[in-house]
Design a protein that fits this description.
alpha+beta, Thiol Ester Dehydrase, Chain A, six-stranded antiparallel β-sheet, 3 helices
């Protein structure tokens, strides 16, 4: 099976390719389709995912629901780690600490950037995901603790 980064690179060149790739990821991990994400940029060490503010991701006050942002953060960090780790390694989230910094009233973008040096060994690896609104104001931050280990 081709790897995730190879598939992304194939699709990003096509019209609507990023949207198609995003739907494919959601077919593999169906829970993520609840936010209808779009992968805007994906390369080893960097991932940017966007989400439209729609009725289905809003809370009772009309802003983007906290759990929708958690979902977005986990998708961003997990996909980044998936493409950045050697094929002999695997990852699993162990915990997430979040900060709700501002009310999220617009479409959102989640970004995560990591140094890929030294992630090829067994360890705990914290990943920071920043979520910004359409005005580039940070509204949410997550630190996701990932456990990295060899595949068996």
């Amino acid at each position: 099976m081709p790897d995730v980064l190879e598939i992304y690179r194939r699709f990003e060149k096509l019209p609507y390719g990023r949207h198609i790739f995003s739907r494919l990821v959601c077919m593999k991990a169906p829970y993520f389709k609840t936010i209808k994400p779009t992968f805007e940029k994906l390369r080893p060490g960097y991932c940017r995912v966007t989400m439209k503010k729609r009725k289905s991701v809003q809370n009772h006050i009309g802003s983007v629901h906290a759990i929708a942002m958690c979902n977005m953060a986990e998708l961003t960090a997990g996909t980044l780690l998936e493409i950045s780790l050697p094929k002999s390694m695997r990852w699993i989230p162990k915990g997430m600490n979040v900060q709700y910094l501002k009310v999220a009233r617009t479409d959102l973008a989640a970004t995560c950037e990591i140094d890929t040096n030294g992630i090829d060994e067994l360890r705990e690896f914290p990943m920071i995901v920043n979520v910004t609104d359409s005005n580039n104001i940070e509204v949410f931050r997550a630190v996701i603790d990932m456990h990295i280990s060899p595949k068996h």
